[in-house]
Amino acid sequence: MPDDASSQSRGAERPPEIARRYTLRNRRGTTAVLTDAGASLMEFWSVDRNGGWADVVLGHDAPQAYLHNDNYFGCTVGRVANRISLSSFECSGARHTLTANEGEHHLHGGAGGFSSRLWRAEWLDLPGAAGALRFSLRSADGEEGYPGNLDVSVTYQLDEQDGLLIEYQASTDKTTPVNLTNHSYWNLAGEGSALGHTLQVQAGEYLEVDAALLPTGRRLAVAGDAFDFRYPLRLGDVLKQRPAGVDHCFVLNAAPRDNALRDVALLTDHSSGRSLQVATTEPCLQVYSGNVLDRVEGKSGRLYAQHSGICLEAQGYINAPNRPEFPAIWLQPGEVYRQRTRYRCALAE
Ligand code: BGC
């Protein structure tokens, strides 16, 4: 019997999953380093007002580390970002039970969510792009408890204006919830605390949450609140009023038309002169101020502490499958889920 057949009959061990790094660089030198582990953004190199370069996202040195990325540095989160209460929802008359990975709740797609998967990578030659790479995977029917085979792709595209466009697409063969996002932690100084950054968000409301960080269903107006990010606020000042930090879903001002990118947030570090402009097609922005980071070993032996980075996660409404009052996140067979978010790191204007 040939060797390969005999090893198959013994049940061949699966080859180890080897994660790789991929580099996109534009003419100015702005560089995005990606990995197929979790379809993640590992590094984003950006120039400061004195011509110095820094990597402005938190993460790990080795791509392999992104397969066990407990703090979700830079990764693609799915099938459904954030929490699903009691790890369960009803769809097409059936109750679906998901893996519970945060107490009794389901967080960021479960223990084996998209952030822990090794994606297939493919270089793309797109007009106008300095470089582009597409990651894709199939999430099987029943994976983590979700119904339907879901084919997903995430395309990263760096442009000559220092913008990194992330385009997501998905299609399914059964009705299923889909809510994808990127979980990069930004620190525009490159290291230290991000509490000196100012943040502006084009949102008039945010979702009230309970002790488990699940939306109660109430929308709160930002006017008169510590979270009135319609005007730039220094994060350190906001946290003086909200010591638990920001971990909230902001309801963005409506898009001018369906699926159009609009500017929704601006993060600025006045010390380096860098700012991050966020534009998206999505209705919501989860702002997370790295509240649970606690001496997490990161790049070059650095220890990330609370508030070392800020996540600006564009997405749909949180726990929407269990909150009929929120706009839905169902994807039906025959439809295509599309979301686009662009992060542009440039000198503050
Ligand atoms: C959530 C946090 C959660 C964190 C995990 C964020 O997107 O909003 O509640 O603790 O992800 O890294």
In words, what does this structure look like?
With 349 residues, the chain is mostly beta strands. Helices cover 4% and strands 41% of the residues. The strands form 8 sheets. It has a 9-stranded antiparallel beta sheet. Strands 16-27-24-21-18-19 form a 6-stranded antiparallel beta sheet, with no helix packed on it. The protein has a 4-stranded antiparallel beta sheet with strand order 1-2-3-4, with no helix packed on it. The relative contact order is 0.17. Bound molecules: beta-D-glucopyranose.
Short synopsis of the structure:
The chain is mainly beta. The chain has helices at 3-9, 235-241, and strands spanning 21-25, 31-35, 40-47, 53-55, 76-77, 83-84, 88-91, 94-97, 106-107, 120-124, 131-139, 150-158, 163-172, 176-177, 181-182, 185-186, 198-201, 203-209, 215-221, 233-234, 247-252, 262-269, 274-280, 284-288, 296-297, 303-304, 310-315, 330-331, 337-347. Bound molecules: beta-D-glucopyranose.
Describe the structure using short key phrases:
disordered N terminus; 6-stranded antiparallel β-sheet; 349 residues; mainly beta; 29 strands; binds beta-D-glucopyranose; globular
